[in-house]
């Protein structure tokens, strides 16, 4: 029992490390900066004073506590999304280890969950899902589906339904981009792509549950006026949270 707890904590530490790098990706990818700064671009730095961060200043979670979320030089407040990514990915890694143990599924679903958290942050800040992250999730989804089904033909049915729902979602929420809820074409397309990718990852029955959750959440938000703002709403959370729930804790047995 003690050994299992130690392994879960170690998994969380790896998650925090991935979370630390995820903060860099979530910040740089939407603005077109290199995500491999140490070798191909600028090293990690304060976005305000441009001070290059030392290795000890990049320790996940611990550094946030020591610096109280501020740059050590200019006292610029570090975005809370950095702490959110590091903490949430660390927790998801621990949950995945508890469910899957040391296995291929642990690696695939942990990396998938890290990518989903990056999407959540980029959607919150920029109202878009970066294609690079979506395609990465697509690769993980294909790998996970093959491991689960031992073949890929069974995914055809759910993918077909996913394409139909993605097209309907795009038509209903975007239309011409003027009077619709989502005003940016790239934003609507990125949401539609994730809907199709989830159909590859999830078995058909679980995917139907996923779509039902999305429709339920969107209905509540629309009825309560959460989407009444002229700015494009953050619909991404309505797509990501149900996906994570069903991916790890589906009430369905399949």
Give the gist of this structure.
By secondary structure, this protein is mostly helical. The chain has helices at residues 2-28, 37-40, 62-67, 80-100, 104-126, 131-149, 155-173, 185-201, 204-223, 236-249. It has ten helices and no strands.
Description:
- This protein is mainly alpha-helical and 254 residues long.
- 67% of the residues lie in helices and 0% in strands.
- The protein has ten helices and no strands.
Map the helices and strands.
Elements: H1 2-28, H2 37-40, H3 62-67, H4 80-100, H5 104-126, H6 131-149, H7 155-173, H8 185-201, H9 204-223, H10 236-249
Helix pairs in contact: 1-4, 1-5, 4-5, 5-6, 5-10, 6-8, 7-8, 7-9, 8-10, 9-10
Tag the structure with descriptive keywords.
254 residues, single chain, globular, 10 helices, mainly alpha
Q: What is the helix tally?
A: 10
Give the averaged pLDDT, no decimals.
78
Total number of strands: 0
Q: Give a short account of the largest sheet.
A: none
First-to-last CA distance? 29 Å
**Radius of gyration (Å):** 19 Å
Percentage of residues in DSSP E strands: under 5%
| Morphology | globular
Low-confidence stretches: none
Helix content: 55-70%
Structural class: mainly alpha
The helix-strand sequence is HHHHHHHHHH
